[in-house]
Every structure is written in C-alpha cells, then in structure tokens.
Amino acid sequence: MARGRTAKVLTTKIDGSAVARHPDELIVEEPLAIHLDDNLVTTTMRTPGHDFELAAGFVFTEGLLAGVAVQTCRYCGTGSAVETEFNVVSVETGGKAPVPVPRLGTTTSSCGLCGSESIDTLCERLAPLTDLAPFELAVLAAVPDRMVEQQTLFQATGAVHAAGAFTRAGDAVVVREDVGRHNAVDKVVGRLLLDGALPASDLGLYVSGRASFEIVQKAWAAGFGAVVAVSAPTSLAVDTARRAGITLAGFVRDGRMNIYAPERLPS
User: Fold this and answer.
1) Cα dist. 151→56, 164, 211 in Å?
2) Chain centre to alpha carbon of residue 259
3) Across the chain, where does the E strand assignment appear?
4) In which order are the strands placed within the sheet that holds 39-46?
5) 3-state DSSP call for residue 145?
6) Which of 180, 177, 149 is nearest to 164 (CA)?
7) What is the pLDDT of residues 204-241, one digit of tens each?
8) Would strands 30-36 and 88-92 be described as parallel, antiparallel, or unpaired?
9) Fewest CB within a 10 Å sphere: which of 71, 131, 134, 195?
10) Which residues are catalytic?
C-alpha cells in the first residue's frame, strides 16, 4: 500500500510573545502516474491512499474506458512497486479499452482539468439523466454536518478536500479525502465502480469545497442524482448540471443552501 498520508514536521509556533517549537502534522502530497493497460494517461498530485480507486475513477469519469469493464488494478512501473514508491498505477482491461491520448503535463491537486471540455463536447458521450426521483431538500441541507465526522484527515491537518456518496436518506456510503478535490471525487467514483455500484442514480455526491465544472462532469458520468457543495458552484458547473438533469446545491451550511439546478424547483 501507499506510504502514510500524513507526516510530522517540527515548526516554530508563535502565539503573541510566546515562541515554541512543536511538531505539526501535515498532509502528504506525491505524484501518481495513471496508466490504462500500461499506456500513460496522466500524472496527478494526490494524497497517497486508495490509489486504485483514484485511477479507476479517473479513467471512468474521463470516458477512457469506453464502456469496457475494469479487470484489475495494480502498482507498476519500470521496477517493483517498492522501487517506484507506489506512485504508478495501471488500470487493466485486457487491452479492450481504446489506447488513451496522454495528458500533457501534470494534473495539479489544486485545479484538476477544469474547463478542458465544453458542455457540448461532454454531451456527445453523456446523455441527460432522466427519471431521477428528486432528493428531499431537508436531506441535502443536512449532508455536510453528517459528513464532518468522517473527514479525519482534515481534522488532523486542515489541508484536504473531502467527497462522499450519500443515500436518499442522507447516510454516507463512502467518503474519501485528498489534497485534490477532483481526486477525492475520483476515489469515490472508483470505489463505486469497482463495487459494481454505477450508475449511482439513487445516490448524491457531497464535496467539501466549491463545485467546479469538472466535479459536476464527474458526477454526471457516474450518474449521481444530486451534488451538494459547501461552497459556491461556478457558472459552467450550473450550466452543466442543468443540461445533465442533476440537482445542484451550493453554499450548503447550517441548514441553508442555494439550489442552482434545476433552474426552478417544482411547485
């Protein structure tokens, strides 16, 4: 498995006139090279842990699987997994998936691949989600508070994002944390994919920060019926959610929220 997700470092703490040396717990950030049938797809900066979920979720939400099943995931590289420090993962389909076009450069943990596709291009491979039963608004409003206790890395470091899948009753199904908000979503989607639980039409997706275009795109690809974000969505995220048929709630805090999609709630 990957190395520890947090690291201890000595820091100088200043509190008024008091100066002292204390250990501080920081989140680990390392590169992960994602391959599809040993063909390099991208390298992303991530928090080690749940690497197979991240790799499988990424190739799925980016449409690289083209409908074929994942047979296995493995650590790989030019040497053993230990020699490559568990930082290279290959998603295996037995050569059935199309050969991917590699992403140029490194996908950063801060911004992902936001805006890499227009909505029209997205619609070429994803159909609008129809016949989805609406989530109760009270359930959506309560989701962030129910997720907080499972965000253990954030509690320890204050430096990670969280994503989680929740039921129509608001119960958490799977929660993942990562230094990259997009990575956290891919880890959730990857877990559901490997468990045979996609499309996630009876589940909602929670994110601990803002709702970007790419996060809504990943939710659409996975079939989530709703996205709940603690912070604001972008305008492109709202347009995408409305095209997809996904309920999008932003600024979901302390029992309050804004509903951005659908454009109008049913009377």
Assistant:
1) 22, 10, 18
2) 21
3) 6-15, 18-27, 30-36, 39-46, 72-75, 88-92, 106-107, 161-166, 172-178, 204-207, 226-229, 247-253, 256-261
4) 72-75, 88-92, 30-36, 39-46, 106-107
5) helix
6) 177
7) 999 999 999 999 999 999 999 999 999 999 999 999 99
8) parallel
9) 131
10) 111
Q: Is the pLDDT of residue 245 over 80?
A: yes
Contact 65, 97 (CB under 8 A): yes
Least confident stretch, 62-66, 120-124, 156-160, 186-190: 120-124
Longest dimension (CA), the chain: 64
Domain limits, the chain: 30-112, 137-261
CATH 3.40.50.300 fits 137-261, yes or no: no
Six-digit token pair at 207?
């994110």
Report the predicted TM-score, pTM, of the whole model to 2 decimal places.
0.89
Q: Which fold has domain 30-112?
A: Ubiquitin-like (UB roll) (3.10.20)
Q: Are strands 39-46 and 106-107 parallel, antiparallel or unpaired?
A: parallel
Give per-residue pLDDT as tens, 44-98: 999 999 999 999 999 999 999 999 999 999 998 555 545 557 899 999 999 999 9
